[in-house]
Design goal:
mainly alpha, 3-stranded antiparallel sheet, 48 helices, 59% helix, flat
């Protein structure tokens, strides 16, 4: 570009985060922007070096620099001798220093800036006094430096005190802190400045820790230390962030790490050691007991605070269980603090020392000091003069563990005693409950451990466990942070004790669970067995989590944890549960002699019902499913139910394949098989975890599913051959002469035969024509809904696949039947507005993340926008609504999507204006007043010092330049801002642009999205509250006025100028156009290309919401499981994404019947009702996680899922024999003859 030096702010990288995975056009735009800004930065650096070379050329006596980059060598300490000596006379210099000294002593204000005077003379820094200077000059200069240092340190103290309570990201005093440190580094060497600043920060940290301790007067001892530090931790982290950002541009990264280690981490460890030492002394007086009583079993443990000779004197120091929990709370807070500081330091390494592994790699930040004998208290006694003489740090040193070293043995013993005591009490309570003879199962919610998501996925987490097991595991989790924190050699005793006692405690738990499992078949109810199985799974998962977190230390015998025993017991209990259920069905439920008297010439109940055993079998499996769903992990529950269903179904297949019914009993056999298939169909949705598992089961991954399909097809074959009308059977199978059976040459193609029974039973749940069942192999939207609702829990991938199916038919039905959409009034009621918040925000957040399917959001919202006439509001996003009109949730979500890139751009503009005020506006907070004439008159002429008054006269010209820079910055980053927006949001504006034909003239140059984006940007620039939020502090009137002028310039460029444009605005736009002809138009075209039709088609290439019906060729490819998983990850990585998915799932479960009726109407006529029901959003359900009603023994007996167990309907089931019989023309001759013999 031709203007690299005119607008340097254009080179800044705007932090516009990309939502999800960007499209190809977005990636290309980002790469082009990055390459262009890197080139501009290189040009700007080269120009600055050229200017520097010209300025310092006369002062250099050595070899001339051949390139501008070579002049950087002039600033090396080894080349300072090549600089031309200052020709200022000693008397002139002395007169000036005395005048400055007198001024600093007499003035009480103290706000004087040394930089304008000191920065003019070339040569070495001011703090390097020349050897040839006279002694008097040195004395006066030292006094001046001392006065300036006191002033700057006082200002730093004020800034530090004023920063209390500020947020970590919005620190209004950060520029002032950096400003004062720069001045100090100009006056004094780096080591001395950092040493004094360290003392200042260490003092602030000590005061903060002491104030946090005194702010909790109601608590004493260990409680006060733990809770006090927990309260002070956010402020401590903020102080670390302040110093990291303030020093990152002043000193090298290793020096910064050394400063953080000494000023922050070292001070914290020292103060913590002092506090803990006082606690030990107090606890030694309170908890000391005679040595003879120390051996008693209690919830206390021995501890030695003084040297280890204390036990030899016959006294022992015991920690109580409460004190141990307080220490655990303190260790947990310190671990969180360490992690936060580590993240901050990693960010520093990424930003400031990329390519320098010693201080940019996260792994080395968590350094473990090998020298355990030197405590923090000893290292803190070094003087400030020798503070930075040590080698620069390459890692963060978290020495707070030194405070726990003297308590290692007592804590190890106390951990063992406390956990053993908790285990003994828990087992005693369980034994008492069992001895009382209560038939109720004592359950507790499965304990959740933070950070266990990786080792315990959601689909494998139990929902309920035995109460005593839950109580014990909660105690283990409570003390686990203490073991996690004790990773030093001197503290490994605590970790080893924890691992040992956890192994003993869990072994006791497993022994009790195994003992209770043997009694299930004798005296305990069947519901007890799933609870025991869930408890074992919970123990195994918790042990796996402990092993994962503690395996970094090879010196701890992790093998003591009985994980293998848990796995073996889990497999045994699962096998026992399945075997018990199968035996109950085989020996009791399915034994019905009256129903199975097939040779009886009389019809069974006049042929109007099926066998009692079939109904009871389904009743038993439905109750079993309810018990499994409420207790076991979803994946395990489905596997158990599938095993029971498969094995019991095998018994039924054996029964009916061997039955030889009489003519009058044929109808009963047909009703039995029909009822069996209906029951299996209703349970089949529950045991499959995906549509592929249902339609295309893998015989190796899920053999039970393949077995169930095979058994159901065998039952269907029995139904077709044994119970079909004889004329239909003869017509289909009389394919040869002389009574020969038809050969396989005439058989129907056998692909997709595994799900034949399911398609014939419920053809409305699948896509395609029912007459071509072997071709259509996808679930319809109604089938997806049924599969989703039958799951034991929320499965994100299945939920997302259901939401995107059939052009988002499920979500469209959900929104179209919501109260806030069906309300035709001009004003929304409060309930309608709340409904919009509950539905629209989760739906918008989820769909706006899906860059792979950019049209999904518009498909769902198009009908809503049409009915509420909201397209015009996309054009007028910044127009104030009417007083009686409430802004819909959808519009608020659209504005929120535009907010992030707007805030990034406005944040840079605010920084730009503040920086301009610092350099130009004398009344700005960071500027300084004029130097008095008594000092200016003494300034040597050789310094060429220019007073600031003459510089201020150019303020009007620089203001216009500021406006041009700001407008140029906006247009430069406009394509990047558009690329950061999610593709679904861009497509929504694309659809809206087509609807707004009346505004086509205004939208033609830039499009609706750019119009709305720039309008919201201008509105933000004129909003004082928004500017204050972005700046972190209120802006003065001058800053707000200049940002408002930037908004007017942008409105003028958009053609949205209000009234007559100001002369300044007109001049800015005209000058910018002269400097860059047609440049703003080019930038608008670049940005608009990212929201054109081609961008969305490219993003959706290879992706479709469903496969086209009507054949296997010519259809678009479907969303693969990999793409669905990728989209789920994008949603869950967004703030609140997983919670929004669960909210949608909850609403779908509450309205399953309503949504099913609406989806059924898509393929048939819409039912005429007097009043259309609306979607229910109330949480009046059994539980927040499962809104489905519990199993009702009285009602479920006569129901198959949501349908009634109607005996007459089942007995008179209309089978399409013309479609069913040809499917079995190719069956084995032996099987066919055997079944025909049973007729």
């Amino acid at each position: 570009m031709e203007w690299p030096g005119d607008y340097p702010r254009d080179h800044a990288f705007v932090d516009c985060g990309i939502s999800g995975l960007p499209g190809d056009l977005d990636v290309q735009q980002i790469l082009r922007d990055t390459e262009e800004k890197l080139k501009l930065n290189a040009c700007c650096i080269e120009q600055s070096l050229k200017e520097l070379q010209v300025k310092l050329g006369d002062s250099w006596t050595g070899d001339k620099a051949s390139t501008p980059a070579d002049c950087l060598q002039w600033f090396s300490p080894h080349n300072l001798s090549s600089l031309k000596p200052n020709c200022t006379g000693q008397q002139q210099l002395l007169d000036f220093l005395k005048a400055l000294q007198q001024f600093l002593r007499t003035e009480e204000e103290g706000e004087r800036n040394p930089a304008p005077l000191a920065s003019q003379p070339p040569g070495s820094p001011v703090h390097a006094v020349r050897e040839e200077a006279i002694l008097e000059v040195q004395e006066v200069w030292e006094d001046v430096r001392l006065l300036l240092r006191c002033h700057l340190l006082d200002r730093l103290q004020i800034v530090t005190d004023g920063a209390e309570g500020a947020d970590e990201e919005d620190d209004p005093h950060a520029p002032q802190r950096t400003h004062h440190l720069q001045r100090l580094l100009f006056l004094y060497p780096e080591a001395e400045v950092l040493s004094r600043y360290r003392s200042l920060r260490a003092k602030a940290i000590r005061e903060l820790i002491h104030s946090s301790q005194s702010s909790i007067p109601a608590e004493t001892g260990f409680d006060r230390v733990a809770n006090g530090f927990q309260a002070a931790s956010p402020t401590l982290c903020r102080m670390v962030a302040e110093d990291l950002h303030a020093l990152s541009g002043l000193v090298e990264p290793p020096t910064i790490l050394a400063f953080i280690n000494q000023a922050h981490l070292g001070t914290l460890a020292h103060e913590l050691c002092a506090l803990m030492e006082k606690l030990w002394e107090n606890a030694l007086k309170d908890n000391t007991t005679p040595a003879g009583k120390a051996a008693r079993s209690s919830a206390r443990s021995k501890a030695t605070v003084a040297p280890q000779e204390a036990p030899k004197r016959g006294r022992s120091f015991c920690l109580t269980s409460h004190q141990l929990r307080c220490l655990t709370l303190l260790a947990s807070a310190l671990l969180d603090h360490e992690e936060h500081v580590d993240e901050l330091a990693t960010e520093l390494g990424f930003l400031c020392c990329a390519g320098e592994p010693p201080c940019s790699v996260r792994g080395i930040l968590k350094k473990n000091k090998e020298d355990t004998e030197t405590t923090v208290r000893e290292s803190s006694r070094c003087t400030t003069d020798t503070f930075f003489l040590a080698p620069e740090a390459t890692a963060l040193e978290f020495d707070w563990r030194a405070a726990f070293r003297e308590l290692a043995s007592p804590m190890a013993h106390c951990v063992k005693v406390v956990l053993e005591d908790v285990c003994a009490k828990g087992l005693q309570q369980e034994e008492a409950a069992h001895a009382s003879g209560s038939a109720l199962v004592a359950w507790g919610n499965a304990p959740c451990q933070e950070g266990s998501a990786m080792t315990c996925p959601e689909t494998g987490t139990p929902k309920m466990v035995e109460k005593f097991c839950s109580d014990i595991i909660e105690e283990l989790d409570a003390l686990f942070p203490l073991a996690l924190a004790c990773r030093e050699d001197s503290l490994l005793e605590v970790r080893a004790s924890f691992v040992e006692v956890v192994g003993k405690v869990t072994s006791s738990i497993l022994g009790r669970l195994q003992e209770r499992a043997r009694q299930v078949f004798i005296s305990a109810p069947l519901r007890k067995l799933p609870a025991l199985l869930a408890s074992v799974v919970c123990v195994q998962q918790r042990l796996s989590h402990y092993e994962t977190q503690l395996k970094d230390s090879a010196r701890i015998p992790i093998s003591l944890l009985p994980i293998q025993k848990c796995l073996e017991l889990t497999a045994a209990l699962q096998e026992n549960l399945i075997g018990y259920c199968v035996r109950v069905c085989a020996t009791c439920i399915l034994q019905d002699p009256e129903s199975h008297h097939w040779a009886d010439p009389k019809p069974f109940y006049e042929g109007e019902r099926c066998s009692f055993s079939i109904q009871m079998w389904h009743y038993f499996l439905s109750g079993l499913r309810s018990d499994l769903w409420a207790v076991l992990p979803p994946g395990l529950a489905q596997e158990v139910l599938a095993q029971v269903l498969s094995q019991t179904l095998e018994l039924l297949v054996q029964r009916y394949s061997q039955a030889c019914p009489s003519y009058n009993r044929t109808q009963q056999m047909r009703a039995d098989i029909t009822a069996t298939l209906l029951c299996v169909e209703q349970l089949m949705w529950s045991v499959c975890d995906s549509s592929d598992a249902l339609l295309r089961p893998d015989p190796y991954a899920r053999p039970c599913i393949s077995s169930i399909h095979s058994l159901c097809n065998q039952l269907l074959a029995v139904l077709a051959i044994v119970t079909s009308p004889l004329p239909e059977l003869y017509k289909r199978f009389n394919g040869g002469s002389d009574g020969e059976l038809p050969s396989k040459a005439h058989e129907t193609p056998s692909y997709n035969q595994s799900t034949l029974w399911l398609r014939l039973l419920s053809p409305d749940l699948f896509t395609g024509d029912s007459a071509r069942v072997l071709v259509a192999d996808d679930l319809a939207a109604l089938g997806q809904l049924r599969l989703l609702s039958a799951q034991p829990g929320c499965r994100y991938k299945m939920l997302l696949q259901s939401l995107l199916h059939s052009d988002c038919a499920l979500l469209q039905a959900l929104l179209n039947n919501s109260r806030f959409l069906m309300d035709d009034g001009a004003k929304d009621s409060l309930d309608s507005q709340q409904d919009g918040d509950k539905i629209m925000k989760p739906v918008f957040t989820v769909l706006s993340t899906l860059n792979h399917v950019p049209k999904a959001l518009s498909l769902v919202l198009e009908g809503y926008f049409d009915k509420r006439n909201l397209w015009d509001h996309l054009y007028n996003l910044t127009v104030e609504p009417d007083p009686g009109w409430t802004e819909p949730t959808a519009l608020r979500c659209v504005k929120a999507a535009l907010t992030e890139p707007i805030n990034s751009i406005v944040g840079h503009l605010v920084t730009m204006v503040i920086s301009w005020q610092v350099s130009e506006d004398l009344s700005a907070p960071l500027s300084w007043k004029d130097v008095p004439d008594s000092v200016l008159s003494k300034v040597p002429k050789e310094w060429n010092y220019t007073p600031r008054n003459s510089k201020a006269k150019e303020s009007s010209k620089s203001c216009a330049r500021l406006l041009m820079q700001a407008v140029s910055f906006v247009f430069t980053n406009l394509p990047s801002a558009v690329a950061s927006l999610p593709l679904p949001v861009r497509y929504l504006f694309h659809v809206g642009e087509k609807r707004l034909s009346q505004n086509s003239r205004q939208l033609k140059p830039m499009g609706l999205l750019l119009w709305g984006l720039l309008s919201c940007l201008c509105q933000t620039l004129e909003d004082g509250n928004a500017l204050m939020r972005l700046a972190g502090h209120p802006l003065d009137r001058g800053g707000r006025d200049r940002l408002a002028l930037v908004a007017e310039c942008l409105q003028g460029a958009m053609g949205q100028q209000k009234g007559v444009p100001k002369a300044t605005v007109h001049k800015v736009l005209q000058t910018l156009e002269e400097c860059r002809p047609k440049w703003s138009t080019i930038q608008l075209q670049k940005a608009r290309k990212l929201c054109s039709e081609g961008a969305f088609e490219l993003a959706e290439s290879g992706v479709a919401l469903e496969r086209c019906s009507g054949g296997g060729s010519g259809g678009a490819t479907e969303l693969t499981e990999q793409k669905i998983s990728l989209m789920v990850l994008e949603i869950c990585h967004k703030a609140g994404g997983g919670e929004y998915l669960r909210q949608i799932y909850h609403i779908i479960q509450l309205n399953e019947e309503l949504l099913a009726s609406r989806l059924s109407a898509l393929t048939g006529p819409m039912p005429t009702t007097t009043k259309t029901p609306t979607v229910t959003l109330s949480l009046g359900a059994p539980g927040p996680c499962d809104p489905r009603p519990p199993f009702n023994a009285l009602t479920q007996f006569s129901r198959i899922g949501s349908r009634d167990f109607d005996q007459s309907t089942i007995s008179e089931w209309s089978w399409d024999w013309a479609q069913l019989l040809p499917s079995y023309q190719g069956m084995s001759q032996v099987t066919l003859r055997t079944l025909l013999a049973n007729r």
